[in-house]
Amino acid sequence: MKSTLDMSLHLSALRWMLFAQFASISIHLPRMPWWLTAFMLVCIVWRWQIIVGRWRFPSALLKTGLAVGGMVGIVVSFQKVSVEAAVNFLILAYGLKLIELHTRRDAYISLFLSFLVSALFFLFYTEIIAASVVLANAVIITAALIAMHSRITQRASVLLKQSVLYWLSAVPLMVIFFVFFPRMSPFWSIDVNQGAVTGISDKISPGDIAKLSQSDKLVFRARFLDGVPASPSSLYWRAIVLDNTDGRGWKAHSNANYAGAIVDWYGDQSSAWQVLLKRSEETLPYEVILEPTNQFWLFSLDGSLPEQPHVGLTQDFTLKYDKPIRQTLRYQSSMPTALTREPELFQWRLRRELQLPDNHNPKTEALALQIKSSSETPQQFIDNALKYFIKNDFVYTLKPPTLGEKANDEFLFDTQRGFCAHYAGALALMARYAGIPARVVVGYLGGEWNEQAGYLTVRQYDAHAWTEVWISGRGWVNVDPTSVVAPERIQQGLQEAVSEENTFLEDSFFSPHRYKAVEWLNDMRQTMDYLSYQWSLNVVGYDVQKQSSFWADLLKTWGSHVWLMVGLLIASAIAGPLVLWLLARQFRHFTVRRSGKLRFEQQLLCLLTDDDNEPEQQALLKLSPRKLFDMLKSNYPEEKALVDWLSQRYEALTYGDLAAGNTEEHKKHWLFMLKRLKQLKAN
Amino acid sequence: MSVLKRAIERWFSSRSPLTDRSLLSNRNIYIIPSRAGWLLAGVLLVMLLTAINYQNSLIFGLCFWVGSVFAVVIWHTWRNLASIELSVSEEVSGFVGGTVQIPTDVMAKDARFHHSIELLWRESEAKVSFDLDSALKTERLPFSSLHRGWNRTPKLEIRTQYPLGILTAWSVVQLKHPVLGYPKPIFDVLPAQYAGEGDDEFDQDAQPQKLQPGSDFYSLMPYVEGDSLSKVDWKRYAKTEELVTKEFIMPSSDDRWLREDDFANLDTETRLSALAGWVIRWTEEQKTFGLVLSGQDIGPDNGVLHQNNCLRALALFEANQ
């Protein structure tokens, strides 16, 4: 076993290597268990001490101990086989390699693995900023490789510049590969465990949505494929239906949203629920680019049907995916312009939607019965119930007071302050007490419409809850009590609705969403948002489907010439940088040679005339160089030898045997001559 | 395998004619991935599999980008070797059986700085590595399989792995290095007519250590590093521990001739070796002598220049090249 460093690398190369290794580890540090973080830092410090010769390599026993300990640590920390565990295992192995790096070959392995370790970051983060961080790492790794192969110590700026040059000139080829390399389906399937993701859940008690409203995290973006609806930001996006109440909060029916529930999957012959939807012919197609939620449900507009594999329709007329959404997902669907949902209700369904809580809210029930007695139809009941909210000056607030056990009674008669979920829950409960099937729907309302780019951005603070009541013959009807309490929430969004109490994103002082009134900030934010939208749509979301549709587009435009065109594209991607480089070289060649000569000639003219006598200088320019040197000789007769030398050199450089020399040499010649010419003047 | 190797070498020979100078360009630079390059390719394959399996566009992207950098670096590696000119340097000579350091002039014809260049014989281990710019550098490689006469040096390989070490660019050059092999000197052969006799002029000269002081011994000088050890007065050293060199006076009158015919009993190579031995010895003893080879007479003269002329004549005697 070797105990010394045997790499014949200079200190600068070793330092660069360590820097690159640290960089690729550092991006993973926040995701590691604390002990692994500490372990990696110790490895890096140890490595440095080995490099400077203070410490020795660990003994075989110690290394074995560390490896076994680390593996046990991974098993204990992660418990089961997951991507997270695998990544951390790789990082552990990488750290161990650091403290037993002896040979050049080890150094190569370590640096190449750094590329892989950096790439794994993308399993967890796919934003532009994540890509930039990984790219920066890759540039540093490349610079370390260059440093490793230099015999001399090069400046950091030189190494980085060179590395950046390589990465930039590789862009065209990379793009070609990225676009044309056939994407295929995975060999085996492993879930990337994302951990907890903020978002709506299948259980809400009053106040949950208010908490969610404190986040400006992106939920999804949507765009409309044929024509934009009149007000895209007042669309109701359904996620999940809650029809089981305990008198305080609402939750989804136990079998509603889990795998195994009856779902009309895309492509299935059976259509248990689709038949209950009476959709109009005319529809509004849309596409959603959904950020990972770790949940099964998809966000859809009323009456949407599954339009692609893995998507299904549930009994509550929401869409769901066949596995938890761990990565950005794109899906299309369409909303009918006219819709009737379930005009007849099954008996089991009627029982479920009329379920009453064991936790009785007597005052609510009394109120419901009182309103019912003054209403003839279910519709009238709803109208009267909404009027009750208006009449009693209910307040829409992001900071509702905490409610006790009989939450609805307290809300309706004592506090009278609440957020959308309070109103939706209270209305649904009142309807049920009055014998009208009702339930709460959770999803998103609103969002920001990006005018130039034409898409809707929906964030966590757009989370919303509303009520759905069933009226015989008309089916399920949406009723949003928030629309009567705080109409501005529907029309202008949450920020306006709570502008008076100033609670919008009050915990996130630095969120740019707070400052929509500051115009330049808002413009900048919208541009960034647009970029990240394009990023997730076209880069992160470039998959098998997108690739085949891209091919189809290409075939349509180029027809049978498609291969020729692609070939040309590839050829130009390879030849492009080369041609650019040649041009740049020619140009530099030209400018340097010219500028040296020009400066010399300028100085010569200044010597022959007054410094700023332009017309005279112009006249002199018409004379031959030899003539000019003759004049110079007569001006400085005692410097005849020098002027002769200058004249000879000038001719040699311009027409003679020196004219063919290389650029750098020329520059030196001209600068040297210029110096001598200035000396002449000084004498 | 060796058939293949020979075929490759033949191909290189046909691609790189024997010249005095050779400029590296796209005609004679070859490039393939190094071992580290294959290692990186392996890592990229793992990255690609990860990307496919997790359907991760960004890992695809990084994988393709590193791959493209690999491709771009082909050119940079090539450029690090291109425009370098190798040319033969001054003539070197050595005795058959010895080792000579053969100089090669290298210079970058463009104004760029060329990093980490390696120069080696294709069939031996020895190599030198250096950086290069437009200044002329002379790099030396050892060569020990000398034969008499003009030598043909093995193929030179010049290579580089800069900047990333994942690719090796190399070129094979055959330079006409002027390398002259002198016959390996033999010091204990007497001319045929003196063979067996022990008391004559030749014998006396053949064993300078037996020279009687006073014959053509002139004076003692303090030993200076570089003086021939055979001229040290060892007896005096034994007595006084003082190193002194015996200076011999130039013999002015009795010019000697070293004739090829004197060694007619030997075969050509041995004969030349014997002559070389005498040339060296007599030069060391600062004797004036002439060399008579069939067809040419050299001298009489003395000194190192004369020795070189003689050795050169011996080296080139009936040499094939």
Structure report:
The complex is a heterodimer of chains A (683) and B (321). Chain A is of the alpha+beta class and 683 residues long. Helix content of chain A is 51%, strand content 12%. Chain A is built from 24 helices and 19 strands. Chain A is elongated, with a radius of gyration of 36 Å. Chain B has seven helices and 18 strands. Chain B has helices at residues 2-15, 35-54, 57-81, 201-206, 234-240, 268-284, 304-316; strands at residues 18-19, 21-23, 30-33, 84-88, 92-95, 100-108, 114-121, 127-132, 137-143, 149-151, 156-160, 167-175, 179-182, 217-222, 244-248, 256-259, 289-293, 296-301. In chain B, helix 2 packs antiparallel against helix 3 (57-81) and helix 6 packs antiparallel against helix 7. The longest helix of chain B is centred in the N-terminal third of the chain and has 25 residues, at 57-81. Classes of the chains: A alpha+beta (683), B alpha+beta (321). At the A-B interface, helix 5, helix 6, helix 7, helix 8 and helix 20 of A face helix 2, helix 3 and strand 8 of B.
